[in-house]
């Protein structure tokens, strides 16, 4: 029998494909159901935030950077404010550090909840999305309580926090932390030993440790491949060295390993949040006492001339930051988030650049899915937990 | 490990290259000449006391009107030695000097970040092989993150023809930015 002539087929996946977490476009070259090559196209969500930030005053950049990785807003703003505070040489009061740790960990849980919901939904466990989003709702309520804004609280400011914690904060967080560990067990009950889930995820999308590091995938992806690198342990910031927690790792490097790492990270985040909540008093210092950056309290503004002048200066001209550059990394839900800021000594940043973990993850995607099956592409994208807003900025 | 001890290690690994320590508030910064960038990066990755095995990011900054105008910044991480390093390369604005070698052979992760730097700043990476638009549309003209690229000009985004800005609009825009900064 004469040999059949076959040719590869090119398929456009996205940019409006529901499993691409926004607007990622993959041009796939298929041989039957096997992927021969993949070319990602990004930039559909590029909004020029870094360029816009150069036109704003230092404090006005906080809401902008929060809109980059829209599932982990406070991870972005934490990286930004820490970088600017490094340039300014500011040291935060302990209570501010603890509140930042607490909110950053709650943010990590919120982001991982969206990840577990969408990831499981995309590979067939549709009901997981509702379970996960229900819990996330409680975290968004806490954001709303703290800052009046559910997605982008802009609560972290250069120099501390926007204002003190509201009444009822401790009760709301305690209620969440009490109920959540049982919910993680419930998620695990639905997925970890679910035959269909494990079949879709085990041995799929394997990334070796060397590959992960060579492609810059530091974060949950590298930890799923055996690395123990976590910024919170290696380069502690905002007081993480005083917290007792473990860095979960797995060695298989497949989709299922990354799933287990992230689920365990949620448990560790609950532990950290409990420790932080214990330390945070219901009221106290919520900003540093540097008059250059932090506006004076309102009662002084209305009674003292100097305070009024200072208030006016901060709200009209902002503050200046010494000439120099700084990069402070934080462990975001997707990996190392960092903000590189350059100051020319004026009241506006000269350059703001966010190190985006999703950007690196999508760059490495063709390597991971090559020679895999087309149905696995969705599982792999889900397991890298990419956010296109973070990737395109 | 501070910049001077990293430089001492590098000088024995890459003889003949002229390095310079940079000022910084967070971690060590070194300036590397473009000509010896690839050898230096290989030494940074492979020398046992350094072992910068992860390229965190590649980015650039435009210091108009200073000359050399650009700085390309590489953030490196050494997981085994718990070190961070910032490597800076000065790049002049004229085309001959404005070319850097790609470091993809050292860290494959450099591919997209270098593409983004070209897209945003117009700095060419020799030997890159895939220097296409990454974040901007394919037919875009100009490099938006440059300081002399117009901002706040109200024009609809056109992906089928280049953004047209008259010289007067352009100058007025630069002047407005300059005034804003002065305040």
Strands of chain A, total number: 8
Strand order across the largest sheet of chain B: 1-2-5-4-3
Low-confidence runs of at least 5 consecutive residues of chain A: none
CATH architecture of the largest domain in chain B: 2-Layer Sandwich
- Which radius of gyration of chain A do the C-alpha atoms yield? 22 Å
The most extensive interface, with participating residues per chain, is: A-B, 44 and 41 residues
Order of helices and strands of chain B: HEEHEEEEHEH
What pattern of helices and strands is seen along the backbone of chain A? EEEHHHHHEEHHHHHHHHEEEHHH
The helicity of chain A comes to 40-55%
Oligomer: heterodimer
Structural class of chain A: alpha+beta
Tell me the number of structural domains of chain B.
2
Strand content of chain A: 5-15%
- Low-confidence regions of chain B: none
Largest sheet of chain A: 3 strands, antiparallel
Number of DSSP E strands of chain B: 7
Descriptive account of the structure:
The complex is a heterodimer of chains A (393) and B (183). Chain A is of the alpha+beta class. In chain A, 49% of the residues lie in helices and 12% in strands. Chain A contains 16 helices and eight strands. In chain A, strands 1-2-3 form a three-stranded antiparallel beta sheet. A three-stranded antiparallel beta sheet of chain A has the order 6-7-8. In chain A, strands 4-5 form a two-stranded antiparallel sheet. In chain A, a hairpin with a 2-residue loop joins strand 6 and strand 7. In chain A, helix 4 packs antiparallel against helix 15 and helix 11 packs parallel to helix 15. Chain A is globular. The model of chain A has no long low-confidence stretch (mean pLDDT 88). Chain B is an alpha/beta fold. Chain B has a five-stranded mixed beta sheet with strand order 1-2-5-4-3. A two-stranded parallel sheet of chain B has the order 6-7. Chain B is globular. At the A-B interface, strand 6, strand 7, strand 8 and helix 14 of A face strand 3, strand 4, helix 3 and helix 4 of B.
């Amino acid at each position: 029998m004469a040999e059949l002539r076959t040719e590869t087929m090119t398929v456009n996946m996205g940019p409006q494909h529901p499993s691409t977490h926004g607007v990622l476009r993959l041009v796939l070259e298929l041989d039957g159901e096997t992927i021969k090559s993949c070319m990602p196209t990004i930039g559909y969500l590029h909004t020029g935030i870094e360029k816009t930030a150069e036109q704003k005053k230092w404090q006005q950049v906080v809401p902008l950077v929060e809109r980059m990785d829209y599932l982990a807003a406070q991870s972005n703003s934490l990286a930004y404010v820490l970088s600017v505070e490094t340039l300014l040489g500011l040291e935060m009061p302990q209570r501010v550090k603890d509140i930042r740790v607490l909110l950053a960990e709650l943010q990590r849980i919120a982001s991982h909840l969206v990840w577990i919901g969408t990831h499981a939904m995309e590979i067939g466990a549709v009901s997981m999305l509702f379970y996960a989003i229900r819990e996330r709702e409680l975290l968004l309520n806490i954001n709303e309580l703290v800052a009046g804004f559910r997605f982008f609280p802009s609560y972290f400011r250069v120099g501390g926090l926007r204002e003190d914690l509201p009444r009822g904060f401790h009760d709301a967080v305690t209620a969440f932390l009490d109920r959540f560990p049982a919910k993680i067990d419930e998620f695990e009950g639905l997925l970890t030993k679910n035959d269909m889930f494990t079949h879709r995820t085990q041995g799929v999308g394997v990334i070796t440790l060397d590959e992960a590091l060579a492609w810059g995938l530091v974060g949950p992806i590298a930890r799923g491949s055996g690395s123990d690198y976590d910024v919170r342990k290696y380069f502690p910031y905002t007081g993480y060295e005083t917290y007792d927690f473990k860095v979960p790792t797995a060695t298989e490097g497949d989709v299922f390993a990354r799933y287990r790492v992230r689920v365990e990270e949620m448990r560790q985040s609950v532990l950290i949040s409990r420790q932080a909540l214990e330390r945070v008093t219901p009221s106290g210092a919520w900003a540093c006492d540097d008059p250059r950056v932090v506006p004076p309290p309102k009662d002084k503004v209305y009674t003292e001339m100097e305070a009024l002048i200072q208030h006016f200066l901060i709200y009209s001209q902002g503050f200046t930051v010494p000439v120099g550059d700084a990069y402070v990394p934080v462990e975001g839900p997707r990996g190392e988030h960092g903000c590189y800021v350059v100051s020319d000594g004026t009241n506006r940043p000269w350059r703001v650049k966010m190190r985006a973990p999703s950007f690196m993850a999508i760059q490495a995607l063709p390597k991971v899915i090559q020679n895999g099956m087309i149905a696995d592409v969705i599982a792999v994208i889900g397991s890298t937990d990419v956010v296109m807003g973070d990737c395109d900025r | 490990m501070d910049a001077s001890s990293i430089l001492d290690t590098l000088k024995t690994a890459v003889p003949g290259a002229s390095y310079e320590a940079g000022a910084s508030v967070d971690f060590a910064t070194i300036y590397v000449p473009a000509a010896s960038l690839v050898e230096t990066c290989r030494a940074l990755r492979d020398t046992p006391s350094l072992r910068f095995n992860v390229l965190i990011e590649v980015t650039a900054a435009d210091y108009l009107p200073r000359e050399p105008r650009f700085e390309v910044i590489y953030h490196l991480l050494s997981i085994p030695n718990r070190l961070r390093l910032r490597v800076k390369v000065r790049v002049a604005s004229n085309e001959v000097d404005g070319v850097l070698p790609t470091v993809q052979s050292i860290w494959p992760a450099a591919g997209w970040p270098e593409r983004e730097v070209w897209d945003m700043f117009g700095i060419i990476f020799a030997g890159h092989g895939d220097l296409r638009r990454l974040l901007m549309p394919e037919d875009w003209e100009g490099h938006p993150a440059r300081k002399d690229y117009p901002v706040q000009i109200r024009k609809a985004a056109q992906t089928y023809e280049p953004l047209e800005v008259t010289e007067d609009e352009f100058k007025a825009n630069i002047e407005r930015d300059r005034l804003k900064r002065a305040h």
